[in-house]
Structure formats: C-alpha cells, structure tokens
Design a protein that fits this description.
By secondary structure, this protein is of the alpha+beta class. The chain is built from 14 helices and 16 strands. Strand 2 and strand 3 form a beta hairpin. The longest helix is centred in the middle third of the chain and has 32 residues. The protein is globular. It is found in: Endoplasmic reticulum membrane. Acts as a molecular chaperone for G protein-coupled receptors, regulating their biogenesis and exit from the ER. Pfam families: Ank_2, ANKRD13_C.
C-alpha cells in the first residue's frame, strides 16, 4: 500500500470511528426522542401492509408500549417479533414480519435487529435487513446494531449492516430532497458569513486548533460554501481552499461537488462505494474502538447572562451588525462510551501509538500502519439467558448479550453562552435547511444538531457548541445580506479536472 493510500485509510479510521456516514456524528437526545415519537405514530415505517381478508386493518393492530414511556409493565406477548428473534425462530419471524412493526423498541431500547446481531442469529438478521429494518437506531445504552455487530465480530454481518446503513442514508436524503428544494426555492437569495473558533481545555491541543471564516452563497436552489477547513477531527485538522457546491437542478448523483481550489480538482460526493472501499471500511471498524457519543439536552436551561460589577444587568451587545441578548446555557452534557472487547492487545497498542503521534503533531505518513483483511472473530459463548429473564429485567438494564463488555464511560458538562438576536433576517428553520445541505462537513452537522434544540427567542448569532469531548467551537454569524450572484460561481471551472479520490471521507 502506498504512503498516500495508507494516509487515506488511516484518516478514515479517525473520521469514521463513530460508525456513521458522512452525515453521521453523535446524535442528540432530542433526535432519539423524535425517532421514538415517530415510531409510535406510524405503525409500519419500513414496509407496506399487504391487505387480505384474514388480516386486520392497520387501526386494529395494537401497538406495544413504547420504550421510555410510563406505560404499564411490558409482557412477553407485547414483543412477538423480539421473542421469535431471541429464540431464533425464523419460521415464525417470516410470518410476523409483514404485519408487525420491526422498528419497535423493547423496554431495553433494543429493536429486533439489535437482538439478532447480539445473539448471532444471522438468518433472522438478514431477513430483517431484507425488510429494511433500521440500522441507524440506538438502544438504551447508546449502541446501534452495527456497533453490536462489530463487538460480535462476524465480518459478513458487519458488511451487510454497513451496506444497508449506507443505502438507508441515501434513501433518506432522496426522501427529503423535494421538501428541501421547495424550502430553498421559497427562501430569498443571500450571502452569509460565519466564523468558527475552536478551543480546548487541553493545553497542547489548544495551540494547534484552527479557526475558519466560512462564506455561504445561496441563489435559487443552489448553494455554495467556501471554507479553509478541509477536514477536522479531535486529533488533527487539514487546511486548504475548498468550495462545496450543491446544484438543486442536477441529478442526485451529480448534485454535490467539492472543489479543491489550490490543486484545481473537483470530486463528486459519493453515492455508491466500491467493493474495495466497503471492505477497507470494515477492516477499519473491526480494528478500532466502538465509540458512541450522545449530547444530552434533557436538563438544559437558559438564563440571561449578567454584566457589570456593582450594578448587575442583563448582557446585551452587538454581534456583527445585530443587537443580541446573551444567555448562559446550563445542563448540557456530552455522554461518551468506548468499547474494545473485540480488539487484540496488538490493536490497542497500535491505535494508541497512532493517536499519541498525531496529538504531538506527527504525520500519518510516519506510521507503519498497513491494514490487513480482518477475519471474523471466534463467536462469543452461547447465550444462556432465557427470553423470560431478558424481557422481565428492569427497563434499560437487560442482562448482557454477546461478547463480554470492555467499556469505558465518561460524562462532561459544558458551560456555554448563546447570543440571540431579533434583528437577524434569517429564521432558524431556514438556517436548518441550508445546514442540512452542507451537513457532510462534520462541524456543520454539529451546528445543525445544536440549533435544533428549543432555543430562546431570536436567531443564534453567536453560540458555543461541543464538537468533540475535549473541543468546543464558538460560531459567530458575522454578516448577512440578501443579494444576487453570477451563476458561474455554482459551476465547475473549465480548467479543473476530476479527481474521484481527492476527499475519500466524503
């Protein structure tokens, strides 16, 4: 493997270790709650009901008590799909799967797919995936079926889940596309400039953290983002001169383009990955920590920030051209978990050496990292827990299924400030539509997640957001004006050449 290829793959290790697509970072508790609410109101989210005289109509089917509600204690019969998956009863699962909600969570937050993966019931898992069971869903401990598959160590199952996750992500983007284009069309053309300043409580790290001035141009259903921050993880950043272009009129496979203005090359953001890329990503997942981060906003509150020594008063200042009221954000907690029961001592030592080198400013090129094709692990001991023991356990505290856990947990409370302005011309809903387009950039996805919270009145012209466990960012909306632009800025310059592998993480 060439040095350039090794760097690309090692970079993917850091980029993808949270086991998400380009859009996937730590999900907020609000996202989880929204998903649960959606599942309670839509009985068949993943497949169509096949009607026949012998089948009840949708309104006659009883939905089981949802996880996290104050419903009566769950009974075994409340979760028939879970039960037959737990027992490996593929024949009964086949008969239930068309008339039951396969996205339902049990009282421990597990879906049937979670159980199939944790117990190694591959036939059940493949049948659920064939009926489009959701892969991007977390249980009460914050783990997805893909995370549990990595722990179990069956390469074929990890690959199947990864492919389904990517397919569902593409379908989700396409499902949102008409609504997004309609919202962009109704929004006026504008220029928006915002600044990013990253800080850390880690002394050495804070010295090398970047800042960035981003310029966003919106015209019709086209968006252009100019930035100098190509890639940013908790260990390193990559600078450059980058433009991201979204052409709403183009076919989905050609809508998203990234320009490297220094090298004069462009890349279309992948909709499909090659077999080799998928296999390499599976190798990376199988040799890396399983990581889950949740931004908990359950107890968040906002209080007016104060200023003055003797006579205290509410803080009000101008941010750019906009008068803003400042608030203190209280109760914002980042809960992170890291698992490594699937790793060998050699894996752990190698990963530690790479991270230590990067934290000291070392280059990925200096590493002797040469990924090898990972084989499936020896299956964990056979499950001895009965269905009755599992389903009758205290909610959220199920007996552990699968490989014995090796897990480290941490919680960090963030103290943040947010400035809200009533003068800013753009609404939060409009901002969310724009951010949804440029969410492949990880730090913008974090911003989108944060502003989805219920904020004080106005527009957040300045805010602090947690980006990684040791890093926060201050985002400032410096300038906004309604304006028109030359259409050429939304096109690929004629002297640029295509490089499909310039940005492997996109």
């Amino acid at each position: 493997m060439t040095g350039e290829k090794a760097e690309r793959v090692a970079n993917c290790r850091s980029v993808r270790r949270e086991h998400r697509l380009s859009k996937e970072e730590a999900e907020t508790e609000q996202d989880e709650e929204a998903g649960r609410t959606k599942n309670r109101t839509k009985l068949f989210p993943n497949h169509k009901l096949i009607k026949s005289p012998s089948q009840p109509q949708p309104q006659q089917l009883q939905s089981s008590p949802a996880f996290g509600t104050d419903a009566p204690p769950a009974r075994s019969e409340d979760f028939p799909v879970h039960e037959c998956v737990f027992k490996g009863d593929i024949r009964r699962l086949s008969s239930l799967i068309r008339t039951r909600n396969i996205a339902q969570k049990d009282l421990h937050g597990n879906t049937p797919l979670h159980l199939a993966v944790m117990l190694g019931h591959k036939e059940c898992a493949h049948l659920l995936l064939a009926h489009n069971a959701l892969v991007k869903v977390k249980n009460a401990q914050g783990w997805s079926p893909l995370a549990e598959a990595i722990s179990y160590g069956d390469r074929q199952m990890i690959t199947a889940l990864l492919r389904k996750l990517k397919q569902q992500s593409r379908e989700n983007v396409e499902e949102k596309r008409p609504r997004l284009l309609k919202a962009l069309k109704e929004l006026g053309d504008f220029y928006l400039e915002l600044h990013w300043d990253f800080q850390s409580w880690v002394p050495l790290l804070s010295r090398i953290l970047p800042s960035d001035a981003c310029k966003i141009y919106k015209q019709g259903i086209n968006i252009r983002l100019d930035t100098t921050l190509i890639d940013f993880t908790d260990m390193k950043c990559q600078r450059g001169d980058l433009s991201f272009i979204f052409n709403g009129d183009a076919a989905p496979s050609e809508s998203f383009i990234v320009l490297d203005n220094e090298q004069k090359v462009y890349q279309r953001i992948h909709h499909e990955e090659s077999e080799m890329e998928t296999e390499e990503e599976v190798d990376i997942l199988m040799s890396s920590d399983i990581y889950s981060a949740t931004l908990s906003t359950k107890s968040i509150t906002f209080t007016r920030a104060q200023t003055g020594w003797l006579f205290r008063e509410d803080k009000t200042e101008r941010v750019g051209n906009f008068l803003a009221e400042f608030y203190s954000v209280n109760g914002l907690v980042l809960e992170s978990r890291k698992r490594r029961e699937h790793l060998s001592e050699e894996d752990i030592l190698r990963n530690k050496a790479i991270m230590e080198s990067l934290s000291k400013g070392g280059s990925l090129m200096e590493q002797s990292f040469e990924p090898v094709r990972r084989q499936s692990l020896t299956a964990p001991p056979a499950n001895t827990i009965t269905w009755e023991e599992y389903i009758s356990a205290e909610p959220g505290k199920a007996p552990h299924l699968g490989r014995e856990l090796v897990c480290k947990e941490s919680k960090k409370t963030f103290k943040a400030t947010i400035a809200m302005s009533q003068e800013f011309p753009l609404g939060i809903d409009s901002l969310l539509n724009v951010l949804e387009v440029i969410a492949p950039f990880k730090h913008f996805n974090k911003l989108r997640e944060f502003v989805q919270m219920k904020l004080p009145p106005g527009f957040p012209v300045k805010l602090d957001i947690p980006v990684f466990p040791t890093i926060t960012a201050t985002v400032t909306f410096q300038e906004f004006r309604y304006d028109g632009f030359d259409e050429s800025i939304f096109s690929i310059p004629s002297d640029y050449r295509e490089d499909p592998s310039r940005f492997p993480e996109l």
